[in-house]
Structure prediction request, 302 residues.
Amino acid sequence: MSLLVVGSVAFDSLETPFGKVERTLGGAATYFSVAASFFTHVNLVGVVGDDFTDRDAEIFRGRRIDIKGLERAPGKTFFWAGRYGTDPNERVTLATELNMFATFRPNLPDSFRSCKNVFLANIDPTLQKSVLEQIKGVPRMVALDTMNYWIERTPAELREILKHTHVLVINDAETRMLSNEHNLLRAARHIFKIGPKTLVIKRGEYGALMVHNGGIFSVPGFPLEEVHDPTGAGDSFAGGFMGYLAASKQVTDAVLRRAMVYGSVMGSFAVERFGLERLRKVKRSEINARARHFFKLTQFKL
Ligand code: AMP
Prediction:
């Protein structure tokens, strides 16, 4: 079953203790779609400027990613710059230039409108809603990511789209901000009342926690000696998670748990090198091997 993603395709300038790169390809929808395409077919909706070359678009070629919905218009592509210190969970945003994103109005190609699984990456909740409104019929699974910017500035619009969201995929700080609850389990109960019945909390190098009516499941972050660049970990996690779910016939608790593991697997590959360097080279056999590694990592006898 195909999967639709709407979100940023960007150029990122990144600084970590391991080095610095200028204007490398990034964006939430880019990380998401590359990660998800290992599991299912992905339809990408976004916008880029005329500084986005065919060479940049090569990342999507030869993968199960349809970029018919990637608009190209005169102007500049979304730009983001960030710096990380020794703690990979802490980042400072140095620049956010919306550029083409400021006026972006998503318009889904006809062939995308019957998508059953939808991932609304971190963008203006009004745009997330407009994408959902263009989907024909009732989608099987709608997942959404957001950030402090939208939680603070557009709370009413965010609450509205959350009513139509099945899975909320956000980080721990955002969970606390959205719910006004410090404790994550209480925060989850609060969020269930707004709409989503499954909450996936991304916790950086500590992994991720899923809370839903079937219980709680926790997956660790894969222990790596060197995290070169944490950018895109959350979106790659979401790509592995949603890609696995979209490819599964049913969404049971067991399937959701495996999706969490594949999310963590994809996030762990993303951070091994700068930008998309590692994800673009990873092989399906390596993904499977790392999933087996997770099994060993978390198994114990009682
Ligand atoms: P993450 O998975 O959270 O590390 O996401 C990193 C990606 O999000 C980067 O490649 C950025 O280009 C993109 N990004 C950063 N800020 C925003 C924003 N305000 N809206 C959309 N995308 C963003």
Summary: The first helix runs from residue 28 to 36. The pocket of adenosine monophosphate is lined by residues 8, 10, 12, 26-28, 31, 80, 96, 122-123, 149, 231-235 (CB under 6 Å). The chain has a mean pLDDT of 96. The two ends are 38 Å apart (CA to CA).
